[in-house]
Design goal:
Elements (H helix, E strand, L loop, with lengths): L4 E2 L5 H6 L8 E14 L14 H4 L2 H21 L2 H4 L5 E7 L2 H8 L9 E5 L9 E7 L3 E9 L3 E2 L6 E2 L4 E8 L2 E9 L7 H25 L5 E6 L7 H7 L1 E2 L10 E2 L2 H6 L5 E3 L2 E3 L2 E6 L11 E7 L20 E2 L2 E2 L9 E8 L5
Helix pairs in contact: 3-5, 6-7
């Protein structure tokens, strides 16, 4: 299968205004993140707390159908993220709230995705809910070189007992020959309230920053993408101060980060809703080198929230909210309680086959 190429007619204005009158051609790839909302299988695993998953709480007779429907819905969404410009599903996509590697194999064998030939990077986390993060990648486009999981150790403020949560996943590899580092996150939730739970996310941000700094120590110009369900908004302390993000790509300093989702959040957009209020917990954040406008290698082009109409509730008390998979103890026929977030990376090509 040939690599996907696209000619950006809409980029012409940009390059003409920059004094470049000639037509330019670009490769484009989507890099995305999606919280898959409780993607558990139908098998009881005694080593994790999967009994509390919505599928396991259903009667045995309907679990199989629920699982198949859930997989079909998730595969449909993944196959369409960013496809309007790239004419392809994401080259790279981080996922959260998955039970194990097998559910990812089942997802990727769905007819909507099987021909994409995705690979999987996954480690088991000690999370008390039995959920992990993972990275999926199209093998013909991205080649992992090194992978590692990084444990987040945090303790309850009152009991001082350890709170078991998700590891952070680091994958370094080549996207069409360009070295890119991806960190996949699912930071501690706001259970118990935003203020009470905040230290857990501050600790997660410090771990994330430590991982990034270890890469910058080797190469200050490292291309780093940190993505995930951060359970914090772009203007919260964990992201804005600890991770150190900017909302303007031209203000990002060396070893700094640009968050294209901050301006979206300030304009009222979100990826998940609670009590009639939108949050933008799902973000894809990039290091300075990806913000440069030298497109001889892959650079940031644009970003978005994948919020197609079919992903939104059309009626009832949750009208306008993401159309989630599980509610009131059963499968709704929906998708996830989060919308996916994505960015486009582009690179100029001199010759397109």
């Amino acid at each position: 299968m040939k690599s996907t190429h696209i000619l950006f007619t809409l980029l012409m204005l940009f390059f003409v205004s920059a004094g470049m009158s000639q037509e330019k051609k670009f490769k484009i790839h989507t890099v995305a993140f999606y919280n898959l909302e409780n993607l558990f299988d139908t098998i009881n695993d005694p080593t994790i707390n999967d009994e509390a998953s919505p599928i396991m709480e259903a009667s045995e007779g309907i679990r199989g159908d629920m699982y198949k429907n859930k997989l079909t819905n998730m595969a449909k969404v993944v196959s369409e993220i960013g496809a309007d410009l790239s004419n392809n599903s994401p080259a790279i996509i981080g996922v959260a709230e998955i039970e194990n590697r097998q559910v990812l194999h089942d997802l990727l064998n769905d007819p909507a995705l099987i021909d994409k030939d995705y690979g999987i990077v996954h480690y088991d986390s000690p999370d008390r809910r039995g959920i992990d993060v993972a990275l999926l990648y199209q093998k013909r486009l991205f080649k992992p070189l090194t992978t590692s999981n990084h444990e987040l150790v945090i303790f309850d403020n009152v009991s001082r007992e350890r709170r078991y949560t998700r590891d952070q996943l680091l994958v370094s590899g080549q996207l069409d020959g360009d070295l890119i580092h991806i960190i996949v996150n699912h930071w501690p939730s706001r259970s118990g309230g935003e203020s009470k739970s905040r230290p857990g996310r501050i600790a997660a941000a410090k771990l994330n920053r430590k991982i990034a700094d270890s890469l910058f120590a080797i190469d200050p110009y490292a291309k780093i993408i940190t993505m995930g369900d951060f359970n914090d908004n772009p203007d919260n302390e964990s992201i804005k101060s600890v991770l150190g993000t900017e909302d303007d790509r031209d203000k990002v300093l060396l070893k700094g980060f640009y968050n294209p989702f901050e301006k979206m959040y300030k304009s009222g957009l979100g990826t998940n809703a609670y009590r009639d209020s939108w949050s933008l917990f799902d973000q894809v954040i990039i290091s300075k080198s990806l913000t440069d406008r030298d497109y001889s290698s892959y650079r940031y082009y644009n970003s978005g929230i994948f919020n197609r109409r079919y992903l939104t509730n059309k009626r009832g008390r949750w009208k306008g909210y993401p159309f989630r998979s599980f509610a009131d103890g059963g499968f709704t026929g929906g998708y996830s309680d989060h919308f996916p977030a994505y960015i486009y990376l582009i690179k100029e090509v001199k010759d397109i086959e």
